[in-house]
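Researcher: Excuse me, tokens okay?
***
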Amino acid sequence: HLLRGNHETPEVNGDVNEYGELSFKHECMRKFGDKLGEPLWDAINRVFRLLPAAAVVDSTIFCAHGGIPRYAGGVDDRLQLLDTPDFPRLPRIQSMPGVGESP
């Protein structure tokens, strides 16, 4: 399974002020230029939104990414991400083919 972690959100991987040249957005812009770099970064983040935040392997092992974006000061609304409509919910994870089925 490929899981989404905190670096697979545009708020983190696009934070050039915090991560500078190490940010994913900066890398896209540097490698592909202004014309292609930002649209590519945006398209990849649309794919990242499709990745599950957790998975169940062999109906016995629960896997989840353990990271939460760093607090940058100001209003601490990092956990509000859990309330957004596009954040994966457990029913979606549980409804995946093969999950919960006997081998």
